[in-house]
């Protein structure tokens, strides 16, 4: 099977724009709506994004879907799937070509995450964390030496992991206790402590670890370092058994005086907290995509059943008015969540729409609402299918279990609400 990314770019280069043709506009397909003086619909994907959507959907349904239930029951990501994600170009979507990546836009990454989640949110979150967090840290804050050393691996063979959370440092991310000590010579750092709830840890070879180099300075002492699996003193201590996204590994990591070369410092000492805040805002858009994809996957699974298979009282269940109202409302909710998602995507790509605030509010709103919709719709989907939705033969109960994490990781729902409220207060409160 040809690469998703390669297929997308080839088709995009040869097929005329459907959207432009539909609107009777004869401009070149490469021109944007704004270039033509036409307001851009939020859901209007670029030619390349449309092709990626088609390609990733095909890949997910043909290659991942047959293994979803097996991976969930085993609580283990299939190694063949991981290899295929690299082969398809889905682990280096935004990485520049000179480092072996596909050098595409953020929207392409989000489209891929959403399409994967329609089939398996566990695979989706692996791609999400790897791209929106790990790769972005290296691209944005890494030295040229770090980029040359790690980006080619991240694009083609090595899974990445983002290590911030600790046992006593979740929502209060900057209360972390993992400590970094600089050697007298300045040639290395020693990392000691523990991380918890770390996604991709079991599959990863490359880890971005946040540690405090100057605890007396509080969060302003936090710095970011690159660690690799196999470094002496670095251990994956425990793999968590979870309610949902069970094929995605979530582990406890321990650091027992792990020596890290000085060149593995990312950016500057004491600025790790800035990097984390910046990257998590982008990551929240990725989680929103995971949740909208999940909601749509759950909805589609259910409506196909109630409109084509499940009959009661001599008619398909989906034909009853009470059911149709629920089905329609759920779809409206999903589309509303997707509108917030792609609004955040375009705000991020445009460099932010609120002066001095970037896309923080857009990301928070998208992540909050998408996670709420995912839980609500996936729960309804089980009810619509009756017993068939409740058993583990299909995917409906799995979508519901997977949905819960959306309200927790990369900032709980309360954290998102607090973020949104603070920004609104700043705007509306009298000075």
**CATH level-4 homologous superfamily of the largest domain:** Acyl-CoA dehydrogenase/oxidase, N-terminal domain
Low-confidence runs (pLDDT<50, min 5 residues)? 11-33
Under CATH at level 1, the class of the largest domain stands as Mainly Alpha
Strand content: 5-15%
- Total number of strands: 10
Q: Overall 3D geometry?
A: globular
Mean pLDDT: 91
Instruction: Provide the CATH topology of the largest domain.
Output: Butyryl-Coa Dehydrogenase, subunit A, domain 1
State the helix count: 14
- Sketch the topology as an H/E string, one letter per element: HHHHHHHHEEEEEEEEHEEHHHHH
**Cα distance spanning the termini:** 60 Å
> What does the main sheet amount to?
4 strands, mixed
Q: Can you give a write-up of this model?
A:
The structure is a single chain. The protein is α+β, with helices and mostly antiparallel strands and 431 residues long. The chain has three domains: 156 residues, Orthogonal Bundle (Butyryl-Coa Dehydrogenase, subunit A, domain 1), CATH 1.10.540; 110 residues, Butyryl-CoA Dehydrogenase, subunit A, domain 2; 156 residues, Butyryl-CoA Dehydrogenase, subunit A, domain 3. Helix content is 50%, strand content 14%. The protein has 14 helices and ten strands. It has a four-stranded mixed sheet with strand order 1-4-5-8, covered by helices on one side. A four-stranded antiparallel sheet has the order 2-3-7-6, with helices on one face. A hairpin with a 2-residue loop joins β9 and β10. α9 packs antiparallel against α10, α9 runs parallel beside α11 and α11 runs antiparallel to α13. It is globular and about 80 Å long. The relative contact order is 0.10. About 5% of the residues have low confidence.
């Amino acid at each position: 099977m040809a690469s998703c990314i390669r297929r997308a770019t080839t088709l995009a280069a040869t097929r005329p724009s459907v959207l432009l043709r539909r609107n009777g506009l004869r401009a070149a397909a490469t021109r944007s709506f704004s270039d033509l003086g036409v307001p851009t619909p939020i859901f209007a994907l670029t030619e390349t994004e449309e092709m990626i959507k088609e390609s990733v959907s095909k890949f997910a349904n043909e290659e991942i879907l047959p293994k979803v239930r097996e991976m969930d029951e085993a609580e283990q990501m299939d190694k063949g799937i991981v290899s295929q994600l690299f082969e398809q170009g889905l682990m280096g979507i935004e990485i520049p070509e000179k480092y072996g990546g596909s050098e595409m836009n953020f929207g392409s990454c989000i489209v891929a995450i959403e399409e994967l989640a329609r089939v398996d949110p566990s695979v989706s979150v692996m791609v999400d964390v790897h791209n929106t967090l790990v790769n972005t840290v290296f691209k944005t804050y890494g030295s040229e030496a770090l980029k040359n050393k790690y980006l080619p691996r991240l694009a083609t063979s090595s899974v990445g992991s983002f290590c911030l959370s600790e046992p006593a440092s979740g929502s209060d991310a900057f209360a972390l206790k993992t400590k970094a000590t600089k050697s007298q010579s300045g040639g290395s750092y020693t990392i000691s402590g523990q991380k918890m709830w770390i996604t991709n840890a079991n599959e990863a070879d490359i880890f971005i670890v946040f540690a405090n180099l100057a605890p007396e300075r509080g969060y302003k002492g936090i710095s970011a370092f690159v660690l690799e699996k196999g470094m002496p003193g670095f251990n994956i201590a425990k793999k968590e058994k979870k309610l949902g996204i069970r094929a995605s590994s979530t582990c406890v990591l321990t650091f027992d005086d792990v020596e890290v070369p000085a060149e593995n410092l990312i950016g500057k000492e004491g600025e790790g907290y800035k990097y984390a805040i910046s990257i998590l805002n982008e990551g929240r858009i990725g989680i929103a995509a995971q949740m909208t994809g999940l909601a749509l996957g759950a909805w589609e699974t259910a409506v196909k059943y109630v409109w084509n298979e499940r009959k009661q009282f001599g008619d398909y269940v989906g034909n009853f008015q009470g059911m149709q109202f629920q089905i329609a409302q759920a779809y409206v909710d999903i589309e509303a969540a997707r509108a917030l998602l792609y609004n955040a995507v375009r705000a991020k790509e445009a460099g932010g729409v609120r002066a001095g605030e970037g896309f923080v509010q857009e990301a928070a709103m998208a992540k909050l609402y998408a996670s709420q919709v995912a839980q609500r719709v996936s729960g309804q989907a089980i009810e619509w299918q009756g017993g068939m939705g409740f058993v583990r033969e299909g995917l409906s109960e799995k979508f519901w279990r997977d949905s819960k994490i959306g309200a927790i990781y990369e900032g709980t729902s309360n954290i998102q609400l607090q973020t949104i409220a603070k920004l609104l207060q700043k705007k509306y409160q009298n000075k």
